[in-house]
Design goal:
The chain is α/β, with parallel strands linked by helices. It is built from 8 helices and 13 strands.
């Protein structure tokens, strides 16, 4: 597991959740199997989410905000560019600094998952259940899903969060990404996972090679995040 150091302020439980398009660690055959497309060089961020987790006992709902990857912002030291370029230019620290500058918020926690580990984590969890309202058929993302509730394995889950083959394209994809991140993290924190002895090995082993976290974060932080996303969540998208 890679470690990045960000500023921590326990009084402000704000998470930055990032999905990277890095193909690092994937063979050509694995890229073809997952329909990730060719390597685009330095990784960029397909998913950028801010999550505010209220204090225990608070009546305030958890808030999840999608930041469109093409948002044009000032990147410290680089001028103005799309926000996902910050990750390619300076990794997690520069992306975090850019998000803080653009929003006026202070980030406390950081979680990143790349293509190379995404499907592995989902499969280690035994899949994640989602309920798309409409069918999704997207050969470019390697996914063909019917409408309705279903358990997605790793390959289909990756296609689900990458697909833009819907009427609102990127806007629909951000909604799907929020739904999936909520389902994934809640699944990771569920008793159904941790009461299964096989998952005691498979899930931590998969996560260790797939998930990048901030230096101050621990497994109980992820568990609290997963639990928070299971309850009442206010979902927003930056205009």
């Amino acid at each position: 597991t890679e470690i990045y150091t960000l500023s921590l302020h326990d009084a402000l439980p704000i998470w930055l959740l990032v999905g990277s398009d890095s193909r690092q660690g994937l063979t050509v055959e694995q890229q073809q199997a997952l329909a990730t497309g060719g390597d685009t060089g330095n990784g960029r961020t397909d998913t950028i989410l801010l999550v505010h987790v209220p204090a225990f006992g608070s009546a305030t709902a958890t808030t999840m905000v999608s930041i469109p990857r093409d948002s044009y912002v000032s990147i410290p030291g680089y001028g103005r560019d799309k926000i996902n370029a910050a990750f390619a230019m300076g990794g997690a620290p520069l992306l975090a600094q850019t998000v803080e500058q653009a929003t006026g918020l202070r980030l406390d926690h950081y979680v990143e998952v790349g293509f190379s580990g995404f499907a592995t984590v989902v499969d280690a969890l035994g899949g994640v259940t989602l309920c798309p309202a409409e069918a999704i058929d997207d050969p470019l993302a390697g996914v063909d899903l019917p409408a309705g509730c279903q358990k997605l394995a790793g390959r289909d889950a990756l296609g689900y969060v990458r697909s833009r083959a819907t009427p609102r394209a990127d806007l629909d994809r951000m909604v799907n990404q929020r739904r999936f991140m909520s389902a994934l993290l809640h699944r990771m924190a569920s008793p159904a996972v941790w009461l299964d002895p096989w998952r005691w090995y498979s899930v931590p082993h998969a996560a260790a090679g797939a998930v990048t976290v901030d230096q101050g974060d621990h497994v109980w932080d992820l568990a609290r995040l997963g639990w928070a996303l299971h309850g009442s969540v206010t979902a927003l998208t930056v205009p």
